[in-house]
Amino acid sequence: MRRRIATSWIATAGGVGQxxxxxxxxxxxxxxxxLCVMCAPxxxxxxxxxxxxxxxxxxxxxAREGSFVPQGADRFRLSLRGLGPQSTWFADRPRRxxxxxxxxxxxxxxxxxxxxxxxxxxxxxxxxxxxxxxxVAVELRLRHFDARRRTARFDVRxxxxxxxxLRHLNxxxxxxxxxxxxxxxxxxxxxxxxGDCIIGQPQLxxxxxxxxxxxxxxxxxxxxxxxxPSAQMALIGVYGxxxxxxxxxxxxxxxxxxxxxxxxxxxxxxxxxxxxASMPCTTGELDLWALPSGSPPSAVDPRWLPAxxxxxxxxxxxxxxxxxxxxxxxxxxxxxxxxAPPGFxxxxxxxxxxxxxxxxxxxxxxxxxxxxxxxxxxLPSVRVASGQTxxxxxxxxxxxxxxxxxxxxxxxxxxxxxxxxPAPGLLYAITTTGIFPA
Length: 438
Description:
Helix content is 10%, strand content 31%. It is mainly beta. The strands form 7 sheets. The protein has a 10-stranded antiparallel sheet.
């Protein structure tokens, strides 16, 4: 499971120092990192003459000066003056390209790009600003653009986190910018990541999907099939040939039988390269992982521990312990002991987001996750996978994926699978609303 707080799809930038050279260096880092973030073009986004319409794109706008005026709690009016005549864009894979677009075209195409319906997230970074107030993550709504005067005005909402690929810059974010400032760069993203996942990570789904080998497919079925290695280079980089194939003309996907008919294990084929130190997790989740070839479990970030029955101190992991049903009077407890298929390891997130506070959170609709929770789930987008009957109308997307496979009349109601947990204190959960599985 890879769950995200609502701001996690931001492709943005973090702190910058006192000198413009550092900002230039940061732009280079952003240019490289954005090509590692797998996003799908936002729904309804359309092409603009100078901008590729079939790829995720990061834009960079430059301004000579601006102001940041409070409008309420966490809301501000951002005014930019002296906008540069050209803005830079960087395209994600498979295009892997970059170019320039006139700032006039970009801002006048705001609605055409889908930004009016779904405001983009991004970052404002001051060139030469004070280190304690020079970088802020925001949601942007364009209110006015004057091409002749080269000015733009946005309504912005301050966000509290960065997204995949740039999350390690979170520590550099500031709460707000000064009311008036000099040179600034605005980074914004044209897409929402439909397949927010880690390359090679298996994910159990409550539906089946046909095998996919194209570069745009986020998920590949884990059914032991032979695939064209030229379309699976990212997976080969993680797995090598541990499951078969010569890696040149053939490559075999892992074979993970699902627990029930109508379900499937899928492998993330397009996403972030495994680096647990920069990936978020919700405390209590237990995930099946395939670490890169040659990477021992000891390389895992301290927030993740192997689910191998080891004994840990309750004081070190109080949130996990509480969800797992460990009483306050118990000083130590054993993590779940979950045997993993060959080539994989089960890991437990023991010190991530508190599930009671990390709302709103969401995953991919129909995904099944194993959680250390003895008394249910407090997330509005997640239900225990215990055979509940749901109404079609509140969960149309989930119904389209599951149909009446697990019960219901198939017209106004449908059912969820019944999955028995592998050990006491655990439960299986199904995501009912969230990202459509791309």
